[in-house]
Amino acid sequence: MSRRRTLGRKKKIALAVTAVAVAGSGAFALAATSNAANVQNASNSTVCQGLATALGNNESFIAGQKAAPDAQSAARIANREAVIAQIKVQQEASGCQVGESVQAGGAAQPGGAAQAGGSAQDPQASQPAGNATATTAPAGNTGNTSGQQVCKGSTVTLSGEAGAPAASSNQFPAGTRLKVTNLDNNKSTTVTVTSVSGSCALLNNAAFEQVREPGKFLIRRAVIEKVG
Asked: What does the buried/exposed string (b/e) look like for 42-65 if buried means 16 or more CB atoms within 10 Å of the residue's CB?
């Protein structure tokens, strides 16, 4: 009689452990499903679109360097790979699809894990930008320094590069002065192009910080002017 009671208790304990394990598995599955549902992308988030565009611009730059390499291509590619790795960190922190990129003039492309970075310093991007200034202009006005408006309709995002305020461009050579105005907050910055990118005007971190709206990585309503 005593032996039967002991076996009964053991069976009850085993059943209880099994039930807890099953419940835990179900909760984990629900949590994983919920986390996947919360991931945003370029189609439903302005922040994610800005980061995806920055990633796509850097990938396009790397592809261009590989297609037509020169003596500095290896250093530039290593720099942009480090930038891409940082952008992917920002994507993850912002709840965006990590590795998603938007190629210039194309659709969003899914990506994979972050790449290992290289040198975080681009030989060209490290050159002085020269008297970069940020101004706040009245609505409808792009400030006192006006020039030829270029790249109408273009959006502006950031490259993820450090250093003094500067820009890169696929249309203007190094040394060109560009003024970028964010019409959503009427802030402007005038910077020097120091390197090549996949868009009309791609601002580095310092320049983008001068004209950005808090929490946004894309300027949809931008005026880009060539001032020198």
From this structure: beebbbbbbbbbbbbbbbbbbebb
User: Alpha-carbon torsion 54, 57, 61, 62, what sign?
Assistant: positive
- What is the distance between the alpha carbons of residues 142 and 169, in angstroms, rounded to a whole number? 20
pTM of the model: 0.56
Give the residues across from 86 on adjacent strands.
Answer: none
pLDDT tens profile 60-74: 888 888 998 888 788
Supply the pLDDT for residue 202: 92
**Which residues have CB under 8 Å from 116's CB, separation 6+?**
81, 85
Confidence band of 109 (pLDDT split at 50, 70, 90)? low
Measured over all CA atoms, what is the biggest interatomic distance in the chain, rounded to whole angstroms?
99
Lookup: tokens for 77: 């590619």
- Which among 173, 188, 176, 197 is positioned nearest to 222, based on CA atoms? 188
* Helices 46-67 and 73-93, packing angle to 10 deg: 160
Cα dihedral value 78, 79, 84, 87, nearest 10 = 150
Tens of pLDDT along 181-196?
999 999 999 999 998 8
Of 60, 50, 55, 49, the closest CA to residue 196 belongs to: 60
Give the separation between CA 76 and CA 101, rounded to whole angstroms: 19
Q: What count of Cα atoms within 13 Å lies in the side-chain half-sphere of residue 77?
A: 13
Q: What's residue 132's pLDDT?
A: 42
Give strand pairing partners of 167.
Answer: 193, 203
How far is the first Cα of the chain from the last one, in angstroms, to the nearest whole number?
A: 99
